[in-house]
Amino acid sequence: MKLDSKIPEGKLEDKWRNYQVKSQLINPANKKKLNILVVGSGLSGAGAAATLAELGYDVKCFCYQDSARRAHSVAAQGGINAAKNYQHDGDSVYRMFYDTLKGGDFRSREANTYRLAELSAPLIDHYVQQGVPFAREYGGTLVNRSFGGVQVQRTFYARGQTGQQLLLAAYSQLYKMVRAKKVEMFPRSEMLDLVVIDGKAKGIIVRDLVTGELKRFAADAVVLATGGYSRVFRLSTLAIGCNGSALWKAHKKGALFGAPSFTQIHPTALPQSSEAQSKLTLMSESLRNDGRIWVPKMKADTRKANEIPEEERDYYLERRYPSFGNLAPRDIASRAAKERIDAGFGVGRLKNSVYLDFKHAIEKFGIETIEDRYGNLFKMYKKITGIDAYKEPMQISPAAHFSMGGLWVDYELMTTIPGLYAIGECNFSDHGANRLGANSLLQASVDGYFILPNTINNYLASEIKTTTITTNHPEFEKAEKETKANIQKVLAINGTKTVDHFHRELGKVMWQECAMSRNKAGLEKAISQIKTIRDQFWEDVKVTGDDKEMNTELEKALRLADFIELGILMCTDALEREESCGAHFREEFQTEEGEAVRKDKEFSYVSAWAYHQGDFKLHKEALEFEFVQPSVRSYK
Amino acid sequence: MKITFKIWRQESPKDKGAIKKYEVDGLTEDMSFLEALDHLNELLVLKNEKVIAFEYDCREGICGQCGVFINGRAHGPHDHITTCQLHMRSFKDGDTIVVEPWRASSFPIIKDLVVDRSAFDRIIEQGAFISSKTGTAPEANAIPVPKEISDRAMDAAACIGCGACVATCKNASAALFTAAKINHLNSLPQGKAEEHKRVAEMTYQMEKEGFGNCTFTGACEVECPESISIVNIAEMNARRIQTNIIG
Questions:
Q1: Nearest-CA distance from A43 to chain B in Å?
Q2: Model ipTM?
Q3: Which of A93, A333, A355, A621 is the most buried (most CB within 10 A)?
Q4: How near does any CA of chain A get to the CA of B63, in Å?
């Protein structure tokens, strides 16, 4: 299969403009006749649904939560990047592009990454206009701070609740269009299958999570904006309901899956405290701006943090990466923490964490400044742990976070199924093998607000001439029947183990073998273990209740069945990539000092997997670096 | 830890609900309250019973989806937290804990502990936005917003829409929720143009949804996970009067 990324011609800075000049337009009278389904209502989904509706399309938007305002974008804390150079510290679109490309370890496309940086500045203008209360100077201008992986201050923030504020802005724009009757909103609705007719995406099958009823929706295009799939690890920073089912169903219907194994492990989550734990809470990375990370120099030190004198503390990030220090990118900071924990220097009750200390920052800036910058995070930390981090250091630990992988999309954000788009975290593009802090809100937003509403016209311009498909089409019949059969199959097993039991099993294998570091033997073992979990799940899971009611166990079971299959693909992808890059650290490929060794000659491509009867076939999109010469990433 | 849960069970909106008792062993102090309910649900599945429906998503105190009455208080025994931030260390071994859904007729029960809060979305729909299309924004620093004003907007904007304010109010009033959103947008220069229309339409919808009136007892502020101040309600009311006079 030839993967056509549709990169426009011209210099980097001209590509997006060249694309827009050449793409087709649709007259406003015709837009009314075109229907678009948007699955997901987070930053990318709500932004896309609102903007497409403003443009005149007829839009339906779906989310599994009770309201669009709960989408997981709400939980992002730290900020959003934009190349505005307000701080006069030498920032520019090109520098931001370069930082992002380098941060992703040269495993993303130049053109997409440049566009991300280019659209960042107008995005801030857009959010300010929508009423996002970004932090301000006394004179009224916007403030910035710095974030992991960069040396300039380009991150805009609204206390530690940036994601919440951006999401609420997108949600309010969405409801503005609901009121205008241009968007119909379907909360408590989960997409369970994609309907493909004559090779094009033409609709979806949705389960009403209150009544259990299966519903059919036909449209001229389908947009997936379903977020990340890191709940495959069970313990992750993601909301409990985040799932990969819509992506997985699309993948099984022919959409290629790009770079599935690239999962970001976030360095600043709260550590796991017991087996019963359902999730890991993220503490914003912005804390690393002022907090210093350390462990005791002595192994298995039993003293309390405040009793350990300065000279007996190992500020290992500052020691190993003097120029970036505590602001080293996430993959590096996470791996460095794991290295110290594995070597026996971990702290906390389970010895699975490191300290994040504000003592020096409080001494330097005063408690009020620190409170102003991170007050709500300190409050949250106290609520969860009972510890006052103004008085003693926080304990943090790495946790599964963002999925850089996702459905393969071209420059237009279209998957390999014509008419099916994937935007935001659920596509693979822009970040490469590692996402820099404060770039996820950015990507989700520009995909939804700025890019998709431009690129979708190019496809729909020809669709307007085709006959409208109704939900009576045999393909809808077939998809609904299969979905129903799958639900009945799960309910009929009536085994002896709970869904959560199997999810814990899957999570342990994935965390052990396919997280911060991977090796051949481990990945091979993981694939066979997950296949066993899959077989046991289908023989022995027990789901009570029935399908014609609100049944949260059934919802979990259906999502887990897809996660299990996705887990196999993730391990397969990690096994195939015999190099270390970004979040993907293959133990076989490292320097003597333990730094990652990338192999550009052999692996400078995006892996794109096709589903074939339970197996996967690899296709490659070669990455060509026309404007930047890939270099070894060094943060020393 | 061993806990006796007394939990409201109700099959559907039409059914009559009742409190059911569950003795649960094997809980630990580190578990969040929702993890304790997860644990109970796993036990129920193994006993071939239907699980208790309850709501949650982010489990980080920000999505606003979790929320139940615990021993007669919204989100449990502490001030200013969400249910997911409540931990079992707040209870003693052997305690009995009564768990009920949010109480308000504008939040009808869907099942067990799950209620329908779509009335909030309908209030938002009536003007909790700034009408400007994507792509029409001026340069961000072209409109300065003094820090004090931006901070005040942020204080109000922090509302997570959980509904604890309504559930805890003896009048089931949505005044704190509505006022927070109105004040967030009205205090910023970008939101000024539509301020009177916003106040009129959002408060009209609030009443239409059947929420009660505010009598300033302040319970909402105590239970609000984001400590949103009832001063917002006073400001909303003042603007309502202004709006009525101006028309």
A1: 14
A2: 0.98
A3: A333
A4: 5
